[in-house]
Amino acid sequence: MKAFKFAAPLLLAVAFITPVQAAGTKAPAGEVVKLGKISPNGPFRLWTIINKVLPAYAAAKGGASLRAQVENMAPLAVSGKKPGHVLAQSVQFRDALDATARTMKLAKVRIYKDPLGRTVTPGVVFVNAGYSLDTLVEVYFTALNKPDAQVGDLYDVPVAAGKSPSDVFALVELATRRLRLIQGS
Questions:
Q1: Chain-centre distance for alpha carbon 76
Q2: pLDDT-derived band at 22, boundaries 50, 70, 90
Q3: DSSP H helical segments within the chain, as ranges?
Q4: pLDDT digits over 138-167, tens only?
Q5: Under a CB-based contact definition with an 8 Å cutoff, are residues 173 and 78 in contact?
Q6: Angle, helices 41-71/122-144, rounded to nearest 10 degrees
Q7: CA distance 168 to 42
Q8: pLDDT band at residue 122, thresholds of 50, 70 and 90?
């Protein structure tokens, strides 16, 4: 049941953005998984949630003082970023999160790679952000050490419009700095 709490939101998201194939069939040669028309707004929304979870995790790990330090961190102003830059920054966050998960004996963050190795798109960034979010919520839930804790509200997705890869990059970089601060406490 606990696994369902963590996996259900991501599975629903993936189900709505990828085509479904019949069991036991393969896609014809040359056909690839399509992630739909995801704009930078999608990843921005997930990284907003990740940045909402981090102060809560900081409080669970280090109390109100650490939470305040994390909340007082702000995104840096950046420009000219592309989805590839965002994914590269996401890898830094994922590596830090994997280190935390490992200390708690939790699974590493899953990784989605385009099967054809094409240029990184917002869809690839979106799926990987979802995987990071799920692992972060699991880390937070484990840190709480309260089996009855409800974490579903952490998946409330805010509305975003008109966002650019640079906006997403700023949130990923902020999340990376916040997680490193929590790890260093």
A1: 19
A2: very low
A3: 2-17, 41-71, 83-103, 122-144, 165-184
A4: 999 999 999 888 888 888 888 999 999 999
A5: yes
A6: 40
A7: 9
A8: confident
| CA 33 – CA 27 distance, rounded (Å) | 9
For the chain, give every domain's residue range: 38-184
CB 7 within 8 A of CB 134: yes
Cβ-Cβ contacts under 8 Å for 108 (sequence gap 6 or more)? 98, 101, 102, 135
pTM over 0.85: no
Residue 155 DSSP code: G
Q: How many CB atoms lie within 10 A of CB 104?
A: 10
Give me the chain's average pLDDT, please: 84
Rounded CA separation 145/125 (Å): 31
